[in-house]
Amino acid sequence: MIAFLKLLARNRMAAAGGIVLSFVVALAVVTPLLPLQPPDVTNTANRFLPPFSEGHLLGTDHLGRDLLSRLMWGTRLSLAVGAAAAIIAAVIGSAIGIVAGYFGGRTDNIIMRIVDMLMAFPYILLALAIVAALGPGLMNALIAVAAVNIPFFARNIRGVTVGLAGREFIDAAKLAGMGHGRILAQELLPNVVPVIVIAMSTTIGWMILETAGLSFLGLGSQPPQADLGSMLGEARSALITNPHTSVVPGLMIFVIVMSINLFGDGVRDALDPRLRSGALTRPRPATIVDRDNVPDGPGDGVLDIRALETQFHVGPRVYRAVNEVSLAVQPGECLGVIGESGSGKSVTALSVMGLVASPPGVITGGAVFHDGHDLIGAPYRDLRRLRGDKVAYIFQDPLATLHPLYRVGDQLAEAILVHHRVGKAEARARAVALLKSVRIPNAERRIDAYPHELSGGMRQRVGIAMALANDPEVIIADEPTTALDVTVQAQILALLDDLRRERGLSILFITHDFGVVAQLCDRVAVMYAGRIVEEGPTAEVLAAPAHPYTKRLIACVPELGQGRRELAAIPGLPPAVDRLPAGCHFAPRCDKAREICGQEPLPLARSGARAVRCRFPEEDIASQEDTA
Ligand code: ADP
Ligand code: MG
Q: Would you state the CATH architecture of domain 2-27+76-275?
């Protein structure tokens, strides 16, 4: 709730609307307590007094009634009628919508056809017809306005409910033996309430206008009772001679409807969970950079990540997702990055090209050298030129990264056309060649397939083909095989290995599986809670892991043909990256940890090709170097 209010306050227009609206509502509430003149007492001697006349701050109308008093009482009435109509329409309409959406089938059909019939009439005509049938009067106007808005709520809520009713948690509730009533009230209603609130906040302004419209036509509030619409209607004949009588209620209607709409938009945004983490701003095209320490270039290798620090600033919290991570990839090399889920692998990979969503992401230190230039803080134009051209990504879920509505060939051609001016036919020919190069059989035909027509392994091959489209120097593969089954995984790994050799590609390969690292990577870096804890040639690290964490990770991998053995899970959980311990992050879970481990930070100690960040390593990497 507090987070919701904070978000709302951050949206300036919505906050202004909210303040004005609260002020108007507060005035309407206290109107009976104010020392106002009676609103309905006529005094024809004082007709059409201008504003700021003595005793009449806003002047008087054609019957000499005090405009200020009529305005206050009228506002009170208009707000009350508008709000009441909105609540009635929301309650009845939503109930209809939920029932129709949940039961579906014939119930849905019958209810919705009736609603459609109501919707077929222009609503102001429908309201007029209802008032004509019931007779003029404020209460009947209220009923009419509520009635014409019921279909709007019913349609909206039905649509949302149909989506929810097919979801597994509703099936689970049914399987648990819950009755329809309880499912509707406890499972569905809480999920549609935000939608109802949003629909109300955006229609209540309309309802006030519609009520005012009926009163303006003389069908709503009856003389001498004032509401904003009837005040405007009565002032119509004096519009030219005494404009203040129309301007006063007109301005009030404008202020109310404007503030409600601005506020309603703010409520809608603040209730949208997708906008919450992004704090109501769209992510920028490149991650925000705010660096204290900037390492000197030019760096070595194709991609040299130096002391990279990426954080997420969410309110007062700082999540240190990546802490002084240094990784260098040499030409033609495959470097593995391994760690548990949440250890900062993806954020490291995305930081390279400034792809971490900002806000909340900020790169607070370090550099990434490519071709002698620092990519961190590079102008967006340069980043865009390199993205997908020199440095390409392969992501975990190819179904999510491929556009579902375009044929894979068109998507491949698009990837080429972004960076190269070639003709359509040429792009298509290249796309076919790419599909062939990732060993997709029958490439000429497959090129016209949609992503959903391909299997998971085929889709990931398309993902790899897209990454290869512009002959990149480096491919960053973020768990590209995690969504695939083991046999397909083995094929994809073999394919990547072949491509690397054929094209001299450098690969930064992210995974949580030591088996995959062993198969593909020349070197491996082990990440834990945003830091590199060990680095070295794959064979050496596998044979003699130096960090206790690496040793435990390797022990987690089952080995076929080695007989039965106990698989060692690592007890405990990785630390939350907004509350990291001062010393070694692994100390609380480490069985070799002593008191000092948790207290003082330790740098990564390098010795030849290997590096480890541990006071009491399993293997002495320095002595190994001597004997080697
Ligand atoms: P993984 O190693 O599984 O790829 P990630 O790099 O995705 O892990 O995440 C690293 C850390 O960054 C996680 O602890 C996560 O909590 C944090 N993180 C990622 N995205 C956000 C975000 N938008 N806001 C706050 N924290 C985030
Ligand atoms: Mg990840």
A: Orthogonal Bundle (1.10)
